[in-house]
Amino acid sequence: MKPRYLGDVNLRQAIVRAVLRQEPGVDFRTAADAGLHGLDDPDVLAFAAQDRRILVTHDVRTMPSHFSDFLQTSQSPGVFLVPQTLSNAAAAEELVLLWCATEAEEWLDRIVYLPL
User: Fold this and answer.
1) Which pairs from 99-106 meet CB under 8 Å and 24+ separation?
2) For the CA atoms of 22, 12, 10, 82, what is the dihedral angle to 10 degrees?
3) Cβ–Cβ < 8 Å for 86, 12
4) Phi/psi at 42 (nearest 5 deg)?
5) Residue 43's pLDDT band (boundaries 50, 70, 90)?
6) Closest CA to 36 of 27, 45, 28
7) Residues 90-102, mean pLDDT to the nearest whole number
8) Spatial CB neighbours of 84, under 8 Å, sequence gap ≥ 6
9) For a surface tag, which of 39, 46, 76, 108 has the fewest beta carbons within 10 Å of its beta carbon?
């Protein structure tokens, strides 16, 4: 099964647009579409897990510890951390490459920094 993505509220929408422009087949749900505004990180992780989507976020500061705590009681489809310093084009290229070259199961319970 191909990875499905969920962008959290702090993910630049230009990245989502660039991914979908490069590969329209990517299933990339935005925070606005998912109604994530106002949710704290543990609830966002729970939503992503329930929806079976890899969370894509710029939150490299607090998300790793929340992810570690989340894994103590739950399974996660994974988290991709996108540093703010990574350009929109580079982030989109990485996400499209990962979508094309991997399966969703490869990212279970993993948190990774992009670019790989």
Assistant:
1) 99/2, 99/3, 99/5, 99/19, 99/23, 99/26, 100/23, 102/3, 103/1, 103/2, 103/3, 104/1, 104/2, 104/3, 104/4, 104/52, 104/54, 104/77, 105/1
2) 60
3) no
4) -60, -35
5) very high
6) 45
7) 98
8) 58, 60
9) 108
